[in-house]
Specification:
About 45% of the residues lie in helices and about 20% in strands. With about 325 residues, it is of the alpha+beta class.
């Protein structure tokens, strides 16, 4: 698998270093004009007035930790094609923090009011400008290495007689993803009922996380005369199907969910996609286009051998 180079990781960290430096410089410059307790939360349903405060020291610790944490995540998983995303993220979070400090530059007896549209516009502009800078910097990073074949050209085979037919199917799932999905779905009605409107709309985020999470928490992987099919074991969709005439070969590979795919669920990376529910054994299918599709499933060796045999009968392998 292609991994981030030191140069690429350094370029991914650079915008966060710049954002943190600018934020700390402005904080120091405006320190005497800032209140002892900084407003850090504003009510959307009350004219944007402040309703949550944090001490200066607490604010510095939290903001610095957030920027450093985002930098660490991007440095760990950045690829050449996603470098612009690291810069855009740094620009967005940096713009938000600058706007937060500006909002706190008020006299002691003034009501602190936030203008979310203005804050988001400033942060969005900073994100676009930084993202374009990151995109330009990809020219100094070597191209991603092409993904090679998952195994030898002939690949494993399952012995079948001329008139024999066979199919293989296995269900697999992720317990952590199942728990996360149920918690997100369970939290949605609670937030909608308890939190004041319109802040309660944030509770709908539980559906955004819970429904896709539940759909991919358990999947069924099938190899038969149609090719490879991966479908949700809970809902009718999503479903991935790779027909035999699209398959150049199949093999087994051990994958690292975080290191190779950047997480769990349906993953899209350079030159490959996958349904990754855990680290470990995975069925890897090579398409004619050169791209790969991986699905983590037990007994992947049998699935790969049968898929190669069926593809060979189809005149592909």
């Amino acid at each position: 698998m292609n991994h981030s180079t030191p140069r690429l990781r350094a370029l991914a960290a650079l915008p966060f270093v710049l954002a943190l430096a600018a934020h700390l410089l402005l904080f120091t410059r405006w320190r005497d004009a800032l209140p002892a307790e900084l407003a850090t939360h504003y009510s959307l349903g009350d004219g944007g007035q402040a309703d949550g405060w944090t001490s200066r020291a607490g604010y510095l610790v939290i903001s610095t930790a957030l920027i450093a944490g985002l930098a660490a995540v991007w440095c760990a998983f950045v690829r050449r094609r996603s470098l612009w995303g690291a810069w855009a993220t740094a620009g967005f979070i940096g713009g938000l923090f600058v706007q937060l400090l500006r909002t706190n530059l008020v006299d002691a007896f003034e009501t602190q009011v936030s203008a979310p549209a203005v804050d988001l516009a400033v942060a969005g502009t900073a994100a676009v400008a930084a993202g374009l800078a990151g995109l330009a910097l990809t020219s100094v990073v070597p191209e991603d290495e092409p993904v090679g074949r998952a195994g030898p050209p002939d690949g494993p085979r399952l012995a079948l007689g001329a008139g024999e037919v066979a199919g293989w199917s296995r269900s697999t799932g992720s317990r952590p993803l199942t728990v996360l999905a149920f918690l997100a779905l369970a939290a949605t009605p609670v937030v909608l009922l308890v939190v004041a409107w319109p802040d309660a709309l944030l509770g709908l985020l539980g559906l955004v996380v819970g429904v896709p999470g539940l759909a991919l928490a358990r999947v069924r992987v099938t190899v038969d005369r149609h090719g490879l099919t991966v479908r949700s074991g809970v809902l009718p969709r999503p479903r991935v199907r790779i027909a035999l005439d699209e398959i150049a070969g199949a093999d087994v590979r051990d994958v690292d969910a975080l290191g190779d795919f950047g997480g769990w669920g349906y993953r899209v990376r350079a030159h490959r996609t996958g349904v990754v529910l855990r680290s470990g054994e995975a069925l890897v299918v090579r398409r004619d286009s050169g791209r790969e599709f991986a699905v983590t499933v037990p007994d992947a060796a049998t699935a790969a051998a049968l898929l190669n045999t069926l593809a060979e009968r189809h005149g592909k392998v």
